[in-house]
């Protein structure tokens, strides 16, 4: 026990001790959840104000994965693919759902597009597009059994997980009373060997080609959800991608407790689920949109399985099965996207300026694995500001020490 004379912060009206106490309180105060910098045209939002409204059900999404896999391979043009399109229509009855069939390179594929808005849509109505490919891969080129490499994979994580997240969000969005339009884009022919050989993202490219300038101008965010069911979920920064849109993810993830060493809305430190200090190059359905000037990013975990390296583990093997996915991982991603929707994190005032997004905002320069993402300068700036504040406080203490009696009160 400390006696009065041993107290670290003595009582009394001593100005030097008062300044020191105030400085220590500032240092020890916990950081606010979601306090990270958000880049224009997006604005910081109070994510914690929307936490209590979240309803995404990871268990339901997990059940959807099993249902999809039970349809059989959902390869482009297959019976399983047609059955899944029917399922999507049936589960999105409150939405305007249409199929768009295209043929390119003698290859026929079908996108499913669902739109919903609680308000009348006009050229100034913002639109958020959420994307998942619904096709499962037609070969298993990485499978250890050479006799099975030519067979389609189950696609529980690579295919069904993104669809499951979008379908569960599709159940919730009509009840959110959002003041903007949401589009759910289910792309086909993203993961076929034919697509790989031609280096094409057929479904996403066809969607972009159908967009008018008005459609492009009012699309404030285009977010791909792919391979997000892994029980060992790790979401990292992906390039290429729009840096301004990426800047909105950390505050949302922090608020939900998905970032290690960051406090959530309850003041608890989060889990290591979202780590944007790691950057990985991924060519996925976000790239065609990004190339047309749409702000687009890819939420994807390319390390599938325990201790898996990028693009290894269960990826493109017959081990991509429902038992390898997790309801918790689906919930983490689903709640992240739901929070972004409810908090208007991806909405800004229209009309947009002419031209493509601000020059320099697309991080298309390749980064090496584990190299800090571009937003590292934010943390460097904060560190310098803290150092300057500390030096200023020490200087103030020295000045006051020369002008007041430094003996503690008796």
Could you describe the 3D structure shown?
With 410 residues, this protein is an alpha/beta fold. It folds into 2 domains: 55 residues, no CATH class; 296 residues, Aminopeptidase (3-Layer(aba) Sandwich), CATH 3.40.630.10. The strands form 3 sheets. Strands 1-2-4-3-5-8 form a 6-stranded mixed beta sheet, sandwiched between helices. The chain has a two-stranded parallel sheet with strand order 6-7. A two-stranded parallel ribbon has the order 9-10. Strand 3, helix 4 and strand 4 form a beta-alpha-beta unit. Helix 1 runs antiparallel to helix 12, helix 2 crosses helix 11 and helix 4 crosses helix 11. The longest helix has 28 residues. The protein is globular and about 55 Å long. The two termini are 18 Å apart. The N terminus and C terminus are likely disordered.
Jot down its keywords.
410 residues, alpha/beta, Aminopeptidase, 2 domains, six-stranded mixed β-sheet, two-stranded parallel ribbon, 12 helices, 34% helix, 16% strand, globular, disordered N terminus, disordered C terminus
Summarize the helices and strands and which ones pair or pack:
Elements: H1 15-28, H2 58-70, H3 79-91, E1 96-104, E2 107-117, E3 127-133, H4 156-172, E4 181-187, H5 193-198, H6 202-210, H7 213-217, E5 219-226, E6 235-239, H8 243-246, H9 249-255, E7 274-281, H10 286-291, E8 296-300, E9 303-304, E10 312-313, H11 327-342, H12 376-403
Parallel strand pairs: 3-4, 3-5, 5-8, 6-7, 9-10
Antiparallel strand pairs: 1-2, 2-4
